[in-house]
């Protein structure tokens, strides 16, 4: 069932579960579903009605978090010029992707599900908006393909997660942005 077709209280419970999972899983990769249910203020049965397995919860959380990131475009564009917004948005995407790199088997299974489709389109739409605004402002050249930018940006979340890797990601992002000008 589509979450939007659920009763209001069920939608609230689902949102509470996702918020609790986001908080707990961002600090402890091995947190139990019982701990997530407790933090969400719902019974274990309620959690399992929404997410029958840990993998299902993790994948839904991944989709939810990617959509939340995609939805930050308008705010960034209100706060800064388009090229700066593009840089910040890509940096934040890379940080999130590096953080989630350890999801392992659950994300590998995503390729077999609709998760890739559910997360790819919001990211491409957000990136398209940022690129269009930067092009309109004369900050980047025209006819840049968002899929190409995303593919190149993938290098940013493949760097090591240490301080040297973060510095390398900054240098790579500088190269990407220079290539767009």
Automatic annotation (TrEMBL):
The keyword Metal-binding does not apply. Residues 11-69 form the HTH tetR-type domain. GO terms for molecular function: DNA-binding transcription factor activity; transcription cis-regulatory region binding. InterPro entries: Homeodomain-like_sf, HTH-type_TetR-like_transc_reg, HTH_TetR, Tet_transcr_reg_TetR-rel_C_sf, TetR_SbtR-like_C. The keyword Phosphoprotein does not apply. Keywords: DNA-binding, Transcription, Transcription regulation. Residues 32-51 bind DNA. Signal peptide: none annotated. It comes from the Bacteria. This is Transcriptional regulator, TetR family. The lineage of its organism: Bacteria, Bacillati, Chloroflexota, Ktedonobacteria, Ktedonobacterales.
């Amino acid at each position: 069932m589509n979450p939007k077709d659920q009763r209001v209280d069920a939608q609230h419970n689902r949102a509470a579960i996702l918020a609790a999972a986001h908080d707990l899983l961002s600090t402890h990769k091995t947190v139990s579903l019982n701990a997530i249910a407790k933090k969400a203020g719902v019974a274990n049965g309620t959690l399992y009605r929404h997410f029958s397995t840990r993998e299902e919860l993790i994948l839904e959380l991944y989709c939810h978090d990617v959509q939340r990131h995609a939805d930050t475009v308008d705010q960034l564009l209100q706060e800064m010029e388009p090229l700066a917004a593009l840089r910040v948005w890509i940096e934040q995407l890379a940080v999130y992707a590096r953080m989630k790199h350890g999801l392992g088997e659950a994300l590998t299974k995503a390729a077999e599900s609709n998760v890739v489709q559910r997360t790819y389109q919001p990211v491409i739409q957000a990136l398209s908006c940022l690129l269009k605004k930067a092009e309109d402002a004369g900050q980047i050249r025209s006819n840049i393909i968002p899929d190409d930018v995303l593919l190149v940006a993938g290098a940013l979340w493949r760097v090591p997660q240490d301080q040297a890797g973060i510095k390398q990601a900054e240098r790579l992002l500088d190269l990407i942005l220079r290539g767009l000008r």
